[in-house]
Amino acid sequence: MDWISAPSGPLRGELAVPGDKSVSHRAVMLAALADGASRIRGFLEGEDTRATAAVFARMGVRVEAPSPGERIVHGVGLHGLAAPERPLDCGNSGTGMRLLAGLLAGQAFDAELVGDASLSRRPMGRVIEPLTAMGASIETEPGGLPPLRIRGGRRLHGIAYAPPVASAQVKSAVLLAGLYAGGETAVRELRPTRDYTERMLGAFGWPVACGPGWARLAGGGGRLRATDVEVPADFSSAAFFIVAATLVPGSELRLRRVGLHPRRTGLLAALRRMGADIREDDPREEGGEPVADLIVRHAPLTGIDLPEALVADMIDEFPALFVAAAAARGSTTIRGADELRVKESDRIAVMAHGLRTLGVRVEERPDGAAIEGGAIGPGEVDSAGDHRCAMAFAVAGLLARGPVRVGNCSNVATSFPGFIDLANGCGFALRTMVDN
Q1: CA torsion, points 155, 160, 164, 168, in degrees to nearest 10?
Q2: Active site includes 382?
Q3: Are 56 and 84 in contact (CB under 8 A)?
Q4: For residue 436, what pLDDT is reported?
Q5: How do residues 75-103 score in pLDDT, each as one tens digit?
Q6: Does domain 21-230 have CATH number 3.65.10.10?
Q7: What would the pLDDT profile of 26-64 be if each residue is shown by its tens digit?
Q8: Which of 40, 110, 292, 364 is the S-S candidate for 280 at Cβ 3.0 to 4.6 Å?
Q9: Domain locations in the chain?
Q10: Using 50, 70 and 90 to split pLDDT, how confident is the model at 369?
Q11: Which residues contact 221 (CB under 8 A, 6 or more apart)?
């Protein structure tokens, strides 16, 4: 499926983007391991999160969906999962696969984690290394690629681990394995990453000691207790509308209940450095997570040298930042973002190539890019099946001098079902083209 994104007038209105994907994944996982029934409200109805829920259903967990965005998970306890009869399909979700690797490493049964073609090209070595050090047995394809074949019945032991690259997914996998390990499991990071797993473990009743860049817990003999979870609106999904409203003259959007986890909002800091007009209204906590309504008005942007300290806090938002930089006055330099090379696509290469196709000057670098802002032309770009690149190029089309055709957009449904309808409802000019 391709999209055609055309220049638009001002973006206006009030909208709610879908629930946070990171929180939705973790809520289902911990609810499944808890004693009793947990209700999750605001659950993301995306293919990735549905795949995670389906994985637990195949291991004997009853998951009800009484209404869209709601799940009731009947937990089976920490040791109550049943051996699956066939491979567990994570779809396109790297988060799902990496966290499940940690959770399944301590089970009594064997399991195999598989994914779609895109996920099957994503290396898993960074998560397998610490899990193996804890005593897990995980086999992969050459190069550490999925499927992951996890041998059950292994006795895990806690470790003190310092990941060479800051990654909330690796940290979370180690901590989840630590629930089943003897002794203490500790993670200390080079830079602080998102602490969703630590917060949610605490909400489900497991003692966790943590602070910026570190976390530790004791495994063995504990239990998780059922709890209700309110999932905030996903900041990564809101990012495309934040950038679009900032760039399109005359725009003003209100984005409701956006999750503002401090390890997630590096894009806000970057855009404000560039001159963006973004206001947080009615800041509050919901379900232990900070949220606020964001009011975004058009403002001219100026290029910046992005501080490397912001990189880990905006790793999923770089496709949107690339487009903001392309429309800014002057140059923007990005360094220290080599993690983008191993996301759903090589996001540095995909965004650099696409923007150059649209007439933007981009110098691609191993760990980032230098982007010279200017006019964006019409043309055809390929999102490489990456949902975030597809939505970023849709934003670029609003500013272009003619229509932009964005190829390979089907995977947007993994994280943002209903994106086109929501986008067009506030002023985008976006339509689909399906090749027969």
Answers
A1: 80
A2: no
A3: no
A4: 47
A5: 999 999 999 999 999 998 999 999 999 99
A6: yes
A7: 999 999 999 999 999 999 998 999 999 999 999 999 999
A8: 292
A9: 2-18+232-433, 21-230
A10: very high
A11: none
Q: In sequence order, which ranges of 34-162 are alpha helices (DSSP H)?
A: 47-57, 94-104, 125-133
Q: What does pTM read for this prediction?
A: 0.86
Q: Can you say whether the dihedral through the CA atoms of 185, 190, 192, 195 is positive or negative? A: negative
Instruction: Name the token pair of 385.
Output: 């099946």
Closest-CA residue to 383 (of 372, 395, 371, 373): 395
| Distance of alpha carbon 384 from alpha carbon 382, whole angstroms | 5
The pLDDT value recorded for residue 132 is 98
Q: How far apart are CA 36 and CA 309, in angstroms?
A: 41
User: What is the separation, in whole angstroms, between the first and last Cα of the chain?
Assistant: 10
CB 4 within 8 A of CB 404: yes
- Single-letter code of the amino acid located at 110: D
The sign one gets for the Cα dihedral 104, 106, 112, 118 is: positive
Model pLDDT for residues 226-258, shown as the tens digit of each residue: 999 999 999 999 999 999 999 999 999 999 999
Distance CA 299, CA 36 (A): 49
131 close to 177: Cβ distance less than 8 angstroms: yes
Tokens describing residue 436: 């027969």
| SS3 at position 213 | coil
CB atoms within 10 A of CB 230: 18
In this structure, are strands 145-151 and 62-64 parallel, antiparallel, or unpaired?
Answer: unpaired
> What is the longest distance spanned by two Cα atoms in the chain?
63
Eight-state DSSP code of residue 98: H
Render pLDDT for 119-142 as a digit per residue (tens, 0 to 9).
999 999 999 999 999 999 999 999
Question: What class does CATH assign to 2-18+232-433?
Answer: alpha beta
Rounded Cα–Cα distance for residues 431 and 419 (Å): 11
Cα 139 vs. chain centroid, distance in angstroms? Answer: 25
CA distance to 32, 40, 421, per residue, from 59 (Å): 10, 19, 35
Helix (H) or strand (E) holding 28: helix 21-33
- The three-point CA angle 251-254-256 to 5° equals 155
Active-site residue, from 195, 316, 382, 386: 316
Torsion of CA 263, 267, 269, 274, to 10 degrees: 170
Omega into 192 within 30° of 0, i.e. cis?
no
